[in-house]
Design a protein that fits this description.
The chain is about 30% helix and about 20% strand. By secondary structure, it is of the alpha+beta class.
Length: about 140
Amino acid sequence: MYISMSRGFPLFAAVLVIGACTVTSEQPTAEAEMIEGFLAGSAVRYAVQDYAIEHGSLPASNADLGLPEPEAYARGALAAVAVGDRGRITLTFNDRSGVDGGTIQLVPIASDALYGMQWDCRTASYEGIQSWAPACRYAPAEQ
């Protein structure tokens, strides 16, 4: 029996949920809204992985996955969840995140039978991302 769920993602999600649970009323609302948007958008990773298993390639759009348009995911600080070339997922946030148009990218980097699809999480928009999403990294845009 083949399990299509990545073993790495549940650990990543657990760390993120634990981080989300530490958000108190003293912390910025923007951070709490970004965590909520990040979790919602991150669920798309399962659809990308399932597509790759079924088709032997990575999707290039939300439509390839049978998902709604990117803007349909808008809620709180999250403005859109777009699947792009080679399964790259771009989470776009609005001004409620502190950076209007700020993005976080989830990029599939490897896949194997034992661990499933592995992901790189990076952003050029949110320098403090590791405070609430330890598996993500800040990568400033090249000038």
